[in-house]
Amino acid sequence: MSTEFLWYIPNQVRAGHRGEPVAADHNSLDTLTEQARALEDHGWTGALIGTGWGRPDTFTVAAALAARTERFQPLIAIRTGYWRPAQFASAAATLDHLSGGRIRVNIVSGLDDLAAYGDSEGDQAQRYARTKEFMQLLRRLWTEEDVTYDGAHFRVSGATVEPRIAPRPGRPHPKLYFGGASAAAERVAATEADVQLFWGEPLADVAERIARLKALSAELGREHPPLEFGLRITTLVRDTSEQAWADAEARVAEMARNNGEGWHDHRRAVAVGQQRLYDLQARGDVLDDNLYTAPGKVGGGGAGTTWLVGSAEEVAASLRRYQALGITQFVLSDTPYLQEIRHQGERLLPLLRAPAFETA
Prior knowledge:
The chain is an alpha/beta fold. It contains twelve helices and 13 strands.
């Protein structure tokens, strides 16, 4: 499996996301296109585009950016209650056709303002049972004709998606990414996902989860190619280690002064995976060599909760250790987004694409 490096486009209505400079046009098509084209120019495969009620529609943003780029691959985050599977399968197949096979899909089952768009949610078991059906039906609609499916949550009869997904070597359909750390989520990942995404946990914790997911895949009878693993994390890269840590500590101090404004509010109820990140704080502000947990104390959330901090060489060495565990998909980011696309593309990516990394 080849190693791929993606970035993150936050897709936010409000400016100032995670330290991004406040600008009136921060979410305009021109601004987002500039980021997508910079990703192409600096060697990134594409970018995860965030989703959630109260943000611009993620699929629409992805379609617009695909139209304005040539190689950029949007990793489109979607929610199973926001879309119905046949509708999404058709929309995604159309965009995949128009973009020349460039889309990827991140299935999200986490918390959202469900009532705002008419969705409802049962307990955790029900939520992930629905997600499992959604993913099963997507695969069938993308690879079969005249699909009939009668599940507990979704049903279709005689469904054929047009245009058809064009199979490519190693890619029968858009790759399905998935997150979640609960036992219910891991059972879905083990059988249905193409890529399981992890937040920035310590190496030993990631190794434990990879081993558990591989064992679950065997136990539950996975029918697809082996599950891949990905890491979604903030990478704070500076010319020297000293400068990186000084900037990281200054940023955390600023977050504390602003009560985490512009960052995910970690004081509300959180999912199992997010709680795992917050629990790391009890083990120290710095874990492994340079995994910084202090941001989670003052407002970090998701990939903003833990950061890899250091020089390009130090951060590359840390990512190499994750790759040695079996990580093949890296989704990195830092702010200012455009500046860091270029900076890390020039300083970090060449180290990550070096033969020593690819064979680690």
